Amino acid sequence: MAIYLDNAATSYPKPASVYRMVDHALRNVGASPGRGSYRQSREATALVEAARNKVARLFDIPHAEQVFFTKNATESINIVLKGWLRAGDRVVISSMEHNAVIRPLRRLSEGGVEVEIAQCSVQGRLEPEVLQKHFSPPPRLVVLVHASNVNGALQPVDEIAKLCNHHGVPLLLDAAQTGGIQPISARDLNLGMLACSGHKSLLGPPGIGVLYIRPGLSVSPLIEGGTGSRSEQDIQPELCPDRYESGTPNLPGIAGLAAGIEFICEKGVTAIREHELRLASLLEKGLSDLPGVKVYVPEVRGSSAVSFSVEGINPADLGYLLDQGFDIAVRTGLHCAPMAHQTLGTFPEGTVRVSPGFFTTTAEIETLLGAMQQLLSQR
Ligand SMILES: Cc1ncc(COP(=O)(O)O)c(C=O)c1O
Fold first, then answer.
1. Ligand 1 in contact with 176 (CB < 6 A)?
2. Per-residue DSSP letters for 116-158?
């Protein structure tokens, strides 16, 4: 069995209960939720609403009906950017953002939305004082990646949220890399919006994502259609969550996500974070000791993604050698975040990224370090 160290892309394996719940939802429930009064449909509805409550509890969201199920974090982010920003608006983003933010904004900028970049340090941290310089006048929205998918840099979200709230600017927090690893309270931070993948550290299957929008923020839906409610009207209902959930939902995905969150709550976010950050720290130390290796260590680490490069070896070649010679799966290149690499000074070749997950063992990290040592000694 390969050693899988690409959990920042998607977590693998999943807890056994996730596989069971996906199978149960598909095999035993099967019906479309919110669409019928027969038993199976009611069961499907109950399953979806229980999952919604679990998401709300995990992120301390006071209004569960403001939690929406999407396809992934990319879709969640697109809904916010395209439904909130209009021509003439200004949005400020950090220089560590993912293409899930950069690409929709590129398109919106062609339609008259002004995009400003708040520059992070060379280790990937956005200082609140730097962001503050973009607040005269305040923008319509701030977008912040909670932790970088390139080097795991954690942003000072408490201070940044305070700054945004002081000026009445909604903050969209991209928690794709931190949901399930870092404690997040949408209530305490008074987040405007929160986007998260279901398939990364929330441990759900692919094809499911989460979005929260604070009540009172008028975000236009990206997609309109059947919701199973107010069907006599040809206008999209205002009622939430229906407003942002048109069409048949991904029942197996939602069921699997609920099982993933249950698993996280059983283990505890703190215990999960400690395990993953301990492995990341072993990696940082072990890799830094190797000749010619540069590790892009953040000021404060928020996730397990460890990026490094080796003098004279292309990251893609190294990834290939680890796969072919040692059956170790790591990610190489730009990780869909070119501006983050410009910030860290690793553009355009990118880095090798190793991202352990909850099921990764110390022995697997030691095997990777041994493989690296062997590869470098052969040069
Ligand atoms: C920081 C960050 N934001 C957004 C995304 C997009 O997530 P998804 O694949 O769920 O759309 C990712 C995925 O890699 C990410 O790491």
1. yes
2. EEEPPPTTS---HHHHHTT-SS--SEEEEESB-TTT-BBP-HH
Does residue 197 line the site of ligand 1, with CB under 6 A?
yes
Which is the closest atom of ligand 1 to the Cα of 199?
Answer: 10
> Token pair of 260, please?
């993933």
- Report which of 285, 97, 61 is spatially closest to residue 177, judged by C-alpha positions: 97
Extended beta strands in the chain, E state = 3-4, 67-70, 90-94, 114-118, 141-145, 171-174, 193-197, 209-213, 293-295, 306-310, 328-329, 331-333, 351-354
3-class DSSP assignment, residue 2? coil
The answer for residues whose C-beta is within 8 angstroms of residue 329's C-beta and 6 or more apart is 2, 3, 4, 5, 6, 322, 323
Q: What is the pLDDT of residues 303-316, one digit of tens each?
A: 999 999 999 999 99
pLDDT in tens, 363-373: 999 999 999 99
Cα(283) to ligand 1 centroid in Å equals: 23
- Summarised one tens digit per residue, pLDDT across range 60-95 is 999 999 999 999 999 999 999 999 999 999 999 999
Indicate whether 35 pLDDT > 90. Answer: no
CA of 94 to the centre of ligand 1 (A): 15
Whole-structure pTM over 0.85, yes or no?
yes
What is the C-alpha to C-alpha distance for residues 295 and 282, in angstroms, rounded to an integer? 12
- For residues 150 and 353, the answer to whether their CB atoms sit within 8 Å is yes
The token pair at 280 is: 């990341």
Distance of CA 200 from the midpoint of ligand 1 (Å): 9
Residue partners of 231: CB distance under 8 A and separation at least 6: none
Amino acid letter for position 326: F
Distance in Å, CA 279 to ligand 1 centroid: 22
pLDDT tens for 252-288 read: 999 999 999 999 999 999 999 999 999 999 999 999 9
- Could you check whether the bond before residue 291 is cis, i.e. omega within 30 degrees of 0? no
